[in-house]
Design goal:
alpha+beta; Single alpha-helices involved in coiled-coils or other helix-helix interfaces; 3 domains; 11 helices; 5 strands
């Protein structure tokens, strides 16, 4: 009997929250009507995406409520509402998640008040179950009905709020479109960098090299010593041009990745960073275990950029680099104990990391509170 009462009390609390949410939604009808009228008049069309965002928050609260009861998280799948008013309205109307939320909203108006039955079942359960359990020594039969009501409320809400395959596909297409645009932007910036490096560095040295050789040929017959000096200068220019070319090649795909693999390349980065860096490797020690070249290059770039930021901005003499093989990919983590406050809009290279990683459908997590520490984690999917 006591166990049934405890379960019924928990279910009653769940139903009470659902009833409270439903009553709040009854008041929300006014907002919906105003939004419909304003949108039809065109002048107030800006209210539509704002109302949709508010509905998303309400649906999100219900998802969390159901998740706490069932132990199963209900995922969300929404299109971002950004851009001009017209673009935001179009995205709000065309998002399958909006239609799903409205269906749930209408259903919640109908089944939400059913939680009030729990109030009526309590006195009946205390009397009937008290006699049933006390006299006949049988399990309670009325109080468990309150738990059934809570299960039913959660089941209906979960089925209505769970994203449909169409909604998931729509959001996925939007994500891929965004990451493709980021990849194109990153690729364009990389091409401009290579062109600038070749034009300002290598090309200038090759032109000067050609001039030195030409002058040396003219001076060879009447001033051999001057010709020798010019040839020495030409050799220096050739070596500088080769150094510039190696620098450009390393920016495209570091040769050290091919020679040593990601682990060796990262350890070389750590040794040359100017910081006291601890490198921790998990699941990648076997030389035969290699991620695809594009994944290794993205991870290498992220670690290099993060270590450069740590050396320039963190103020900490130490850093930590972690490379870990996870079930579905590769995770690289860089952490320093500096003063934190990393700003992605401040030209610290974090945007470049995000674009490279997003092009491979990966994720970047940045944690840098003021006062530190700063941790940048990159997770890249790949098949081992």
């Amino acid at each position: 009997m006591w166990k049934a009462m405890c379960q019924a009390a928990r279910a009653t609390g769940q139903l009470a929250r659902s009833v409270a949410l439903t009553f709040a939604l009854y008041l929300f009808v006014t907002v919906l009507l105003i939004t419909v009228v304003a949108t039809l008049s065109v002048v107030g069309a800006w209210m539509l995406p704002e109302t949709v965002l508010l509905i998303r928050r309400i649906a999100g609260a219900k998802r969390r409520m159901v998740g706490s009861w069932t132990g199963r998280e209900i995922p969300e799948a929404y299109l971002p509402l950004t851009g001009t008013v017209r673009e935001r309205v179009r995205a709000a109307v065309g998002d399958p998640g909006t239609a799903a939320d409205l269906r749930w909203l209408g259903a919640q108006y109908l089944y939400g008040p059913l939680g009030l039955l729990a109030v009526a079942l309590w006195p009946l359960g205390l009397v009937v179950d008290g006699l049933w359990c006390g006299v006949l020594r049988r399990p309670a039969v009325v109080l468990p009905l309150i738990g059934r009501l809570a299960d039913l409320d959660a089941l209906w809400s979960e089925s209505l709020l769970k994203p449909s395959p169409k909604a998931r596909l729509t959001v996925r297409v939007a994500e891929l479109t965004q990451t493709r645009a980021g990849a194109i932007t990153a690729h364009g910036a990389e091409l401009r960098r290579i062109e600038r490096d070749l034009h300002d560095g290598t090309q200038a040295r090759l032109v000067s090299l050609s001039m030195r050789i030409g002058l040396a040929k003219r001076a060879y017959d009447h001033d051999p010593e001057a010709a020798r000096r010019m040839l020495d200068q030409a050799q220096e220019l050739a070596e500088e041009a080769l150094t510039e070319l190696r620098h450009v090649v390393r920016g495209i795909h570091p040769p050290i990745l091919t020679d040593r693999g990601l682990v060796g390349a990262v350890r070389a980065l750590a040794a040359g960073s100017g910081l006291d860096v601890t490198v921790d490797v998990t699941g990648l020690d076997d030389p035969g275990v290699r991620a695809p070249a594009a994944v290794e290059a993205a991870a290498y770039y992220a670690v290099a950029e993060a270590l450069t930021n740590a050396a320039k901005h963190s103020g900490s003499p130490r850093a930590y680099v972690g490379l870990e093989r996870v079930g579905g990919g590769l995770r690289a983590t860089v952490r320093d104990d500096g003063h934190g406050g990393a700003d992605e809009a401040g030209g610290t290279g974090l945007l470049g990391i995000r674009r490279r990683v997003a092009a491979l459908d990966g994720e970047v997590t940045v944690s840098s509170p003021v006062g530190g520490p700063t941790e940048i984690s990159v997770e890249l999917p790949c098949v081992w």
